[in-house]
Protein 1
Amino acid sequence: AQTVTQSQPEMSVQEAETVTLSCTYDTSESDYYLFWYKQPPSRQMILVIRQEAYKQQNATENRFSVNFQKAAKSFSLKISDSQLGDAAMYFCAYRRDSNYQLIWGAGTKLIIKP
Amino acid sequence: NAGVTQTPKFRVLKTGQSMTLLCAQDMNHEYMYWYRQDPGMGLRLIHYSVGEGTTAKGEVPDGYNVSRLKKQNFLLGLESAAPSQTSVYFCASSPPGTGGVNTEAFFGQGTRLTVV
């Protein structure tokens, strides 16, 4: 069965600096999708970035980028120029290509220091 | 664009009471899901549906029932609430997962349920 591990329960970063959140996963599949979701205090789950496993190029979305290491089964999220609005819980999630179910990590709480 | 809407947003139940959570999506998605979120844990799948009239069990289905009579609606029922069901419940929807880049799930705003 697939599992997703986020080993950092909490991270803090100074405003305007860069922070990297870690995620590792375990799977025997070759085709799958990986996601990072943000959950601010409002509770809303917001998609931050996604990566298709068959793509070697790392996904980027403005200040957010990933370091996808398929062989190592690692999918870290880098946030550049951190802003106060980035403070939230961040969840890493895995989905099989031919399936529907998201497998979630336990989350990392990101604190932004002004 | 409403997206995914959950009703209600908050609820307090007494042990043994029943209730139904409603999820509605206006994106014509085939797949719908109910998750629960507990402190220190990732979301866990309760039940899901791959189309109108279909439902299936997820990771933690005990104590819950679901129905998908219309494509746009997915209902989660608690027949006899227990304190262990105190949680935040999320509904989500997505298009089918095969062959497409638009495979992410869209979430409702969550329902905080407390069972006393």
Note: DSSP finds no helices and twelve strands in chain A.
Protein 2
Amino acid sequence: SAVISQKPSRDICQRGTSLTIQCQVDSQVTMMFWYRQQPGQSLTLIATANQGSEATYESGFVIDKFPISRPNLTFSTLTVSNMSPEDSSIYLCSVEGGGGLFYGYTFGSGTRLTVV
Amino acid sequence: AQSVTQPDIHITVSEGASLELRCNYSYGATPYLFWYVQSPGQGLQLLLKYFSGDTLVQGIKGFEAEFKRSQSSFNLRKPSVHWSDAAEYFCAVTSGTYKYIFGTGTRLKVLA
């Protein structure tokens, strides 16, 4: 299955600033996914990123707040813009684990974001 | 709408004891079911999955899970827990799309 490198692993940011999270995969993948894991809660899908097209955002998430880039089949970035303390979460990128989307995801190690 | 419930937020077991983590789902048709583990500071790792066929599925690290349609459950088990199993465990379901619904997780503590 794919190996994902995600960085930074953690950051502490001032409110009102932006942070860009990078996700690098060691193989070409069609779809990449960005999740948010808020403290004490489950994972929530933010958006799906396909190379060559605009990301598809889930209900409650908008491009102005979470712009995503997908310049090629192995790389994606998620930016958390104009941050507030409510954005403090773990952000994870993921790709299909091999064998198709119904065979489970492979996840990066996550970015733990604290907004102060 | 689909949903996943993990009733136990925290579970503590002694090393060598057996383990069962509960997962209940709500979905009309046969779902695709998964268990993931998240060790501290790590991403999620797939333990096992169920699509169809034998309702008892084996996974990595000595874990198994049993799909019980009548109870809408997919409980995770391990006969003998090791200290390295301390982590958070997530159950997930999908109807067959890329959108997975995750449970809120069960945090496992292992006593020496």
Note: DSSP finds no helices and eleven strands in chain A.
Protein 3
Amino acid sequence: DGGITQSPKYLFRKEGQNVTLSCEQNLNHDAMYWYRQDPGQGLRLIYYSQIVNDFQKGDIAEGYSVSREKKESFPLTVTSAQKNPTAFYLCASSQGWLRTDTQYFGPGTRLTVL
Amino acid sequence: DAKTTQPTSMDCAEGRAANLPCNHSTISGNEYVYWYRQIHSQGPQYIIHGLKNNETNEMASLIITEDRKSSTLILPHATLRDTAVYYCIVRGGNEKLTFGTGTRLTIIP
């Protein structure tokens, strides 16, 4: 089965704790992305990676960190510096970065910080 | 800044064609029109995309006007499982996808 997996589906953390969200793809895609979605809102780009060992900040990178050590994996860490971490987090991947490269999304992780 | 304008919500009877409009009056020549949908609490699902020709796949048809300033996504025989938020996105060059708030489509039994 090819696709993008995110785990866990639901995550609860106490305020002040760092938490890492997993994203794995077996589509052999070069590019991967992290988005955040708040209730009733569209998606906002946190970080993206066009190739292994390289990544760039998106529109709302403050309080987040990523790594891209393997092509298939792009974990996102939500740090204690993120002021409002409770949200729905979505990972996506695409073959490349061109406008014709379709992004495919994982099922998402809903993070709740108590 | 949003490049597209969509109605906030629409209803469609089950079994009928659902026609979802999108205005993108400032679209430039190298920008594609993408459609995604998002069922509640799931990741967005890619539907279709096009540049200037009409496109059709197993999920939907995309009709783009000749001046490319607007488009319509057509779901030919809507089912209850088509209830979702539908996003129209204009994307060009090396730009990221920019999701607005989309159209909430409700299929009525």
Note: Chain A touches chain B through 27 residues (CB under 8 Å).
